[in-house]
Amino acid sequence: MRKIIKSIALFSLFFFLSCGGGSIKNLKIVNEAPTKVDLVYPTQNLLCIDNTISFDWSDATDANNDKVSYKIEFSDTREMANITNTETASTSKKAITLSKGVAYYWRVTAIDSKDELGEASLVNAFYTKGTGETNTAPFTAEIVSPENEVSLVAGTVSVDLKWKGADSNTNDVLNYEVYFGETTDLTLLEDDVAVLEKNVTVESGKTYYWKINTIDNSGAKSIGQVWSFSVN
Fold first, then answer.
1. Which one, of 63, 64, 68, 227, lies nearest residue 142 by Cα?
2. How far is 124 from 110, CA to CA, in rounded Å?
3. Nearest CA to 76 among 38, 128, 37?
4. Measuring CA to CA, which residue among 134, 84, 135, 131 is closest to residue 107?
5. Of the residues 3, 34, 164, 186, which has the fewest C-beta atoms closer than 10 A?
C-alpha cells in the first residue's frame, strides 16, 4: 500500500512539473518599487542666500535589495506641472547650483536598478535670493480644500475654499485675490482678502474653477494655479 501511495505521489509531481506549473524557471519574482522619501533640506519656504544648495532627503529602501538612485525634479509651479530641471543622484544628498532670484518647487523620486519608480515625495518650496535683492515675491498659494478635481456629494450648496500662503520674507504681511467661476476664464470674486478661506455658493451638476493670487505688503504678487472641483 505504501508503494502505491509513493508511486501516485511521484506521478503527480512529474505531471505537475511537465505541465510547467512547478518549473523554477517559470517562477517570477515580483519587483517592488522603492519607498517614498522625505525631504530634509531645503526646508519648506526657505530663503536660500546661496544659489548652490546641498539638497538632502531620507534614504529609500527596496524590498528586493535592488540598488537605488534618485531623481530630483524642479518646477516653477507648486503642482510640478512644468519641470524646469531634473537631476539624478546615487545617494540621498547632492549639491546643485540654480539660478538666483527664483522661487523653486522640488521633489525627489527613488528609482531601483530595474527602473521601477517609487512614489514621489511631497513638494517643498524655496527661494534663491538675487544679487542686491531686498524683497522676494511670495510663494504661490497651496491648496487645502476642496482637493483639486474632487467630486463633492450631491446637495452641497456652499463650499469653503481654503488655502495656505507663505513668503520667504517671514515678516511680510500677505493678502489674497480670490478668483472663482464655472469656466477657466475666471472672474475676481474678492481682493484684499486677509484670511485663508472664502465661502462660495454652488449648485449640483456643475464644475467650478478657482485660484488664489498672493500679494505681499510691498506689492509683489504670485499668480496661483487654477484648481477645480465638481458637485454631483
1. 227
2. 16
3. 128
4. 84
5. 3
Mean pLDDT, residues 89-117 taken together: 96
Contact 169, 130 (CB under 8 A): no
Q: Is the dihedral of CA 217, 221, 225, 229 positive or negative?
A: positive
Reply yes or no on whether the pLDDT at 15 is more than 70. no
Cell numbers for 155, please give them. 446637495
CB atoms within 10 A of CB 152: 15
Asked whether residue 9 is domain-assigned, the answer is no
Count of the separate structural domains present in the chain:
2
How buried is residue 196: exposed, middle or buried, by Cβ count under 10 Å (0-12/13-18/19+)? middle
Contact 228, 147 (CB under 8 A): no
pTM, two decimals, is: 0.74
- What is the domain extent for residue 160? 142-231
Same domain, yes or no, for 59 and 98? yes
Would you say 202 and 179 are in contact if contact means Cβ atoms under 8 Å apart? no
Asked if 136 contacts 220 with a C-beta cutoff of 8 angstroms, the reply is yes
Beta-sheet pairing, 197-201 with 221-222? unpaired
Residues 89 and 163 in one domain: no
Q: pLDDT (tens digit, 9 = 90+) per residue, 65-99?
A: 999 999 999 999 999 999 999 999 999 999 999 99
